[in-house]
Design goal:
The complex is a heterodimer of chains A (314) and B (293).
Chain A lengths: L10 H5 L7 H6 L2 H29 L2 E2 L7 E2 L3 H8 L1 H35 L3 H8 L6 H11 L6 H8 L11 H28 L4 H9 L4 H29 L3 H5 L12 H10 L4 H25 L9
Antiparallel strand pairs in A: 1-2
Chain B lengths: L6 H28 L3 H4 L14 H6 L5 H6 L9 H31 L6 H10 L5 H14 L6 H9 L3 H12 L3 H9 L4 H12 L1 H17 L2 H6 L8 H11 L7 H21 L1 H10 L4
Helix pairs in contact in B: 1-15, 5-8, 5-9, 5-12, 14-15
The chains are: A mainly alpha (314), B mainly alpha (293).
């Protein structure tokens, strides 16, 4: 729900042709009224977005424990980061999480969207598939924490029934990240599927009719027609979901808290720990800065590589 | 569009139904566990129905049972009061939603319906804020709220989200742009000022998108965890999500109070589920429109 798309140029539609007005009035337009209407939003924007962004950048070059004023220390924090094995571990764990989470989620979302598109337009089905997305991360995490419990969780009961040994989903360091990633796939796949579903509906039906006339099978139609035409939507979905995925925190905070043996200490959680349990705000800000840079680069790369703006329909 | 059932379609339906079951089953399991007696739960881990059906878990987390009763049913006996957290969540989500949607609508009006120099540049700047990851601004915001002495107050939890979000402004601006100029000009000729235009025309004409935005904002605010965790730890302002985290960490390692925990998660989730069921069509249709155009 957060994708910023380019709004259409609105001059023609919303303004129409105006009768000529005195020069000053035309230059300033409705500036006075606009200032009143914008005042509250601007206050919030400056105080809670612009100012903290600048301050965050500054803090990343300081040593700051909250108790005394921040002390400028140049690039020390960034140098420290290079030698901090926990930082690299956190980055690695985060990337592992994002790859599993986004990979699985995108495949499932496209599958669900295709199934809904071909089978049913029912609003009930769509609403049911969306339901997990409306429940808090914390709730989702706890429900699965219970269902995946080693001894009495229903999932391990099911595995035992199938003759498979129970799995310590949260306790085994190899399983912990895939488990957390899977839980969040469960929460987000319906939402992502609806985004893809909306994209599917923009593909004109004549393309499919032409394919059918040419004798293309179901599979061929999907790979050769649907997927390429869906690409611009898929790229936007990938950018938005991946940015969200890098910022996983809630699920880990209420289940594994970084463990076992650092295997789920993702970058967001590590920043949180540094800032709020060790009051190492300067260093935490520097890591947040790096995360910011990574997210910017990842989004740009995706947009570039997948040529998001060009549509094959044009 | 009805097509005959062939084997391919039957398999496709089967897959969709399995996915729906996977999606919905955890909700049932929450309810089944919450209605069980925690001491008996471990003995019947795979019983599909509640084990010794009781409302004990709900009473326990709502602070309605005595310590002895709670412990007899496998609770920790620690005092929890989800009524209080429910009230706190209501306060936070309601004030955040009302303020954020109203102020964002005002800003959207200035960006969509008024003409002034630099308008599009300022709008682009507002949108650019969407790119900044929340944790980056969260750290300095925490320092600010702390310096203002607003830690552990509703004001501290609510303030950062009360004025605007770039998304809300963007979302409403799209709708405001679509309203016809002629109506506005007719009203202007009749002597209506901008305040009257905004309250008397733009808001009523955009009631549907404003309602959609308000519902989505309410849900997001209700479900938020990170910020209230940082600034609202104390019991008197603790919201449900934070309370759940605390409840989970208080639960004894040996025999966790699963029934209590699930009752608590249900209390946290239920208002959003009800809100969703009431507005399912509106919320479902808004996705796709607002996300990607």
């Amino acid at each position: 729900m957060t994708a910023a798309t380019n709004a259409p140029p609105d001059t023609a539609r919303s303004h129409g042709e105006q009768a000529p007005k005195p020069a000053k009035r035309r230059r300033l337009g409705d500036l006075k009224v606009a200032m009143i209407f914008l005042a509250p939003a601007t206050l919030g924007f400056v105080v809670f977005y612009i100012w903290p962004t600048l301050r965050g950048a500054y803090l990343s070059f300081t040593e700051y424990s909250l108790l005394e004023a921040p002390k400028f220390n140049g690039l020390d924090n960034y140098e420290r980061m290079i030698h901090d094995s926990f930082f690299w571990n956190a980055l690695g764990v985060t990337v592992e999480y994002v790859v599993i989470n986004i990979g699985l989620q995108t495949v499932l979302a496209v599958a669900i969207a295709m199934l809904m598109y071909r089978l049913t337009k029912s609003i009930t089905v769509r609403a049911a598939i969306l339901l997990p997305y409306l429940v808090a991360n914390v709730v989702v995490a706890l429900v699965w924490y219970w269902m995946l419990d080693f001894q009495v969780g229903i999932v391990n009961q099911g595995l035992t029934w199938l003759g498979i040994d129970p799995i310590a989903f949260f306790g085994d360091s190899n399983w912990a990240i895939p488990t957390v990633a899977g839980i969040n796939v469960w929460r987000h796949m319906g939402y992502t599927a609806l985004l893809v579903f909306a994209g599917l509906q923009t593909i004109p039906s004549y393309v499919y009719e032409a394919a059918e006339v040419d004798g293309a099978g179901e599979m061929k139609t999907f790979w050769r027609i649907t997927l390429p035409l869906l690409r611009p939507v898929l790229v936007m979905v990938l950018v938005v979901t991946m940015i969200g995925s890098f910022q996983v925190f809630d699920t880990i905070a209420v289940t594994t808290q970084g463990g076992p043996i650092n295997s789920t200490r993702v970058i967001y959680y590590y920043i949180f720990e540094r800032a709020f349990t060790r009051f190492d705000f300067g260093y935490a800000s520097a890591m947040a800065m790096v995360l910011f840079a990574i997210l910017a680069i990842v989004s740009l790369l995706q947009l570039r590589l997948l040529r998001a703006k060009e549509s094959d329909l044009a | 569009m009805k097509r005959p059932l062939n084997p391919g379609r039957i398999v496709a339906w089967a897959v969709l139904i399995i996915l729906l079951i996977v999606t919905l089953f955890p909700f049932y399991w929450m309810l089944r566990t919450a209605l069980s007696n925690n001491t008996q739960l471990a003995g019947h881990p795979s019983s599909l129905l509640p084990v010794e059906t009781t409302l004990g878990a709900f009473k326990r987390v709502l602070g309605l049972s005595t310590i002895e009763e709670a412990q007899a049913q496998g609770g920790s006996g620690a005092s929890v009061n989800f009524w209080l957290y429910l009230r706190n969540s209501l306060i936070v989500a309601t004030i955040t939603t009302v303020c954020q949607v109203f102020f964002s609508a005002m800003a959207a009006y200035a960006f969509a319906r008024l003409r002034w120099p630099g308008r599009d540049k300022v709008f682009a700047l507002f949108l650019a804020a969407l790119m900044v990851p929340p944790i980056f601004t969260t750290l300095p915001n925490f320092v600010l709220i702390k310096n203002l002495g607003l830690l552990n107050s509703f004001a501290g939890i609510i303030l950062p989200g009360a004025f605007m979000t770039p998304f809300a402004i963007f979302f409403l601006r799209q709708f405001f742009l679509g309203i016809s100029r002629e109506l506005e000009e007719a009203a202007m000729i009749d002597g209506a000022g901008h305040a009257r235009l905004f309250f008397g025309m733009i808001i009523p004409m955009s009631a549907a998108p404003i309602a959609t935005l308000a519902i989505l904002t309410y849900i997001n605010s209700w479900n938020d965890y990170f910020w209230p965790l940082l600034v609202g730890q104390q019991e008197n302002v603790r919201v449900l999500t934070v309370a759940l985290g605390v409840f989970r960490s208080q639960t004894p390692q040996g025999g966790p109070d699963w029934a209590g925990l699930m009752a608590a998660t249900l209390i946290a989730a239920l208002p959003m589920i009800i809100l969703f069921l009431a507005f399912a069509k509106r919320i479902t249709n808004s996705i796709g429109f607002s996300g990607i155009k």
